[in-house]
Amino acid sequence: MTEHERRVKAEQRERFDFAVIANWLQPGEHVLDLGCGDGRLLRYLDETRDVTGYGVEIDPESVLACICNGVDVIQMNIESGLLGFEDHSFDRAIISQALQTMHTTERILSEMLRVADEAVVSFPNFAYRSNRAAIAAGHMPVSEDLPYDWFDTPNVRFFTIVDFEDLCARLGIEIRERLAFDEAGREVADDPNLNGSLAFYRLGRKS
Amino acid sequence: MSSENSVGLVTPQRVRFATPLTLKSGAVLPGFELAYETYGTLNAERSNAVLVCHALAGSHHVAGFYADDPENIGWWDNLVGPGKPLDTDKFFVIGVNNLGGCYGSTGPLSIRPETGKRYGADFPLITVEDWVAAQARLADHLGIDTWAAVLGGSLGGMQALEWSLQFPDRIRHAMVIASAPKLSAQNIAFNEVARQAIISDPDFHGGYYAEHGVLPTRGLRLARMVGHITYLSDSQMAEKFGRQLRHGEHKFSYDVDFEIESYLRYQGNKFAAFFDANTYLMMTKALDYFDPAYAYAGHLPSALARARARFFVASFSTDWRFAPARSREIVFALLDNRLRVVYAEIDCDAGHDSFLLDDQHYHALLRAYLGNIAV
């Protein structure tokens, strides 16, 4: 694959991720995107769903990229919570493929459902078939959705669809919808913990 | 100083406003003059004007240099110029000496028309709100209906914030840097020490020192020394001076032993040689009184509900005078109103004064934000 092909593929994949999230949003929603990176998701949601809102990011270069992209970004560390954000001040809090890069998983999930009515979470499933195969062959997995070598990965939490759902149950978080996709971007219905590479959740508080 | 990106030779201008200005204190200024400078060109749509507000000791001389004083380079010259983050090829930039200042605008040094003598202590207390009201007259004079942006650091940032509240429809972007929505008790305490240093100087004469032919330089020097401590970070002071000795040994006297003492004395002397003590007193009071939430039972989000501008808010990690938490107060009050805002917390070891430096990341943020402003 040439560098160009790789980039095109990455962009197609990114748009597919973004589209899954966009499909869950109502036009005009007010959202908070945690670990927003360069703000591309928020820009996409603005363009496709007319959403308003803010990104939150700790990395200085990403904050700069957000500003270049015209995305409203708040530079802060969310590991210690979302102090300063009012309860239910957002329709949705989103964390797109960033939860696995943070240490305080429980706090972040709880805080998302404090400041927003609903949370949208996506993450790479470490129990995906090819990841299991890599481990069985004696190596940490490197894949489409886990594109890092073990020694330079930003990921600090390694969990599976089953693990995540156990945690949600323990925290009293209601899973309102789940979608899982394989590496080719096909939706997976059968045994998602084995066949799903990337998982998306809509989460809420049981009323 | 690289002169290739400099706005070059600049000439200060003055404008007189004859209509009386009723101040927040209730006092009335019968008329006033403002000294200002401009850089770049106002476009045909008059949509590219940017106001740069100065902090405690600043002036209208923001960028460039003077023909008769080429060493006198504007205080934010690293930011303003052709190709610089605040690009004068794109923007029409205005610097103004605030009302009550001592660089040419009407202030305590001005001759009072009724008496033919200097105002001195009789010059009324001016607030941030009054500065903005006066700046609005300058905008009218220059044919600027709406600022593309108003920006400033520290006390200058408070003016940018105040613009968004007093004239919500006349400002598109408010850039509030190293600032705070109000002073803390500690901030006021430092100001009070500075004021007492000046007021208790025997040469102060209740503010009428001009009539006695003296200047309260000792008080002003002390005030500046105290201020300077709050502008620098502990780590930067340690790095710059540490416990370095001036004479290589302890002198067991009250003369300068440590380099930091020498530095503070130098800064104090330099400042006291040209700054007006009454202006300094007034500026510190303007800082103390600034509190847009005061009229809203201390609730900042309610105070900011009027704002329509988009905001750029930035703070510096080692600034303990206006720490990042103070900027976050502004940010979250804007969020509560669903106003558009970007907030950057910049890692810089130079304390409060960081906002004046050309830290690469800081300037990249400013360049990016200003670059996206449509004109």
TrEMBL record, chain A:
SUPFAM superfamilies the UniProt entry points to: S-adenosyl-L-methionine-dependent methyltransferases
Pfam short name (any one): MetW
InterPro entries, per database record: Methionine_synth_MetW, SAM-dependent_MTases_sf
Name assigned to this protein: Methionine biosynthesis protein MetW
Transmembrane segments: none
Gene from which this protein is expressed: metW
Automatic annotation (TrEMBL), chain B:
Signal peptide: none
One GO CC annotation: cytoplasm
Catalytic residues, chain numbering: 154, 319, 352
Annotated AB hydrolase-1 domain residues: 48-356
Keywords: Acyltransferase, Amino-acid biosynthesis, Cytoplasm, Methionine biosynthesis, Transferase
InterPro entries: AB_hydrolase_1 (IPR000073), AB_hydrolase_fold (IPR029058), HAT_MetX-like (IPR008220)
Superkingdom of source: Bacteria
Name of a matching Pfam family: Abhydrolase_1
Intracellular or extracellular location(s): Cytoplasm
Gene3D superfamilies on file: 1.10.1740.110, alpha/beta hydrolase
Pathway listed: Amino-acid biosynthesis; L-methionine biosynthesis via de novo pathway; O-succinyl-L-homoserine from L-homoserine: step 1/1
Catalytic activity from the UniProt record: L-homoserine + succinyl-CoA = O-succinyl-L-homoserine + CoA
E.C. number(s) listed in UniProt: 2.3.1.46
Residues binding substrate: 224, 353
UniProt GO molecular function: homoserine O-acetyltransferase activity; homoserine O-succinyltransferase activity
UniProt site (Important for acyl-CoA specificity): 321
A single GO BP: homoserine metabolic process
Role of this protein: Transfers a succinyl group from succinyl-CoA to L-homoserine, forming succinyl-L-homoserine.
Subunit structure: Homodimer.
Family: Belongs to the AB hydrolase superfamily. MetX family.
Descriptive protein name: Homoserine O-succinyltransferase
Origin species: Candidatus Accumulibacter meliphilus
Gene: metXS
